[in-house]
Amino acid sequence: MVATAATSSFFPVTPSPDSSDSKKKRLGNGSINLGGIKSKTSSSGNLQVKANAQAPPKINGTKVVTPPAEVFKNEDGVSFHPPRTFINQLPDWSMLLAAITTVFLAAEKQWMMLDWKPKRPDTLIDPFGIGKIVQDGLVFRQNFSIRSYEIGADQTASIETVMNHLQETALNHVRSAGLLVDGFGSTPEMCKKNLIWVVTRMQVVVDRYPTWGNVVQVDTWVSASGKNCMRRDWLVRDSKTGEVLTRASSIWVMMNKVTRRLSKMPEEVRGEIEPYFMNSEPVVAEDSCKLVKLDDSSAEFVRKGLTPRWSDLDVNQHVNNVKYIGWILESAPLPILETHELSSMTLEYRRECGRDSVLQSLTAVSDNGTDEIECQHLLRLEDGSEVMRGRTQWRPKNAKISGNVGQIPADTA
Known about the structure:
Number of strands: 19
CATH architecture of the domain at 122-286: Roll
Largest sheet: 12 strands, antiparallel
Radius of gyration: 41 Å
CATH topology of the domain at 122-286: Thiol Ester Dehydrase, Chain A
Distance between the termini: 88 Å
CATH superfamily of the domain at 122-286: Hotdog Thioesterase
CATH class of the domain at 122-286: Alpha Beta
Structural class: alpha+beta
Helix content: 10-25%
Number of helices: 8
């Protein structure tokens, strides 16, 4: 008996006609429920078999059609299901595949929901989508793609393009920190006291100029400088290779927007900006050489009649500091511009100029007996008042540069 049961579980046994007849006799005229199949005899005496009807299941909104169960008929036309065996008890693979698909879709949806969770503080993306705060919230990072209208005759980005990137990241840093209210970088307390930031000194070292299509990564941070000043540094890299392209350091002071006079830093303002200060050395070593004051006798090249356009004014109603750089290069001799490229510059901003100012650009060239050239510059008003002093250094074009490896200084405060 046990052997028979085991054999029948693996091999189906075809019922004999006699057994079917006896089974039919036992059914009689009544009704019986066998494993979900309901059979009854109609008034005409024919045996009818009906399966319990169920609506086709749905998975992810799609109807899944299951194949009908295999049904056999004997010689008398009576329908019956085959015995339960190992083969016909295997799972429905289409249903299993649909279940696995459902699990994966649910997991994917859950993963997408996790992406909306807040990021770590050291990688917060600013709400304006223009950069991100890194290194414990002290460094602002932004990428720029070099456009075709930002390159010059040398097929590289101009120095004005580089300086505009530095200025843009400085402002976006303040805005991302939530301190920008009005004017260029003015904090809430500065606005109450009619104070604005003005740059007094700028040092820039360019190891290589990017070309059209390059993407540069600009990092910027601020530090204390004396009692009433702030220093801002920049580090510009090639975003693909990590090569350092430009390093820059600047000193900023406060000026009263109404009186146009320099002002001490109020304690309320200091309390706003000190949490963002890094305790670090300047990314460019301070140039200790004094800038020469040029006059008509010492200047070799003079360009007169320079006037600002309306588009040269910033929101504080004075000429943008990047425009000054273009003005001092107006008097640079053309042979130098054709054979050399600007490698570094030191600028001292003496006073601002407005829409009605008329300026003169003076340049003197120093011959040091090498391939590199040094120039002294002065930008002044027609009445002789100094606007800016500067010194630029030039290297031959296509010269091989042993680039300095620049790093963002670690905060040691």
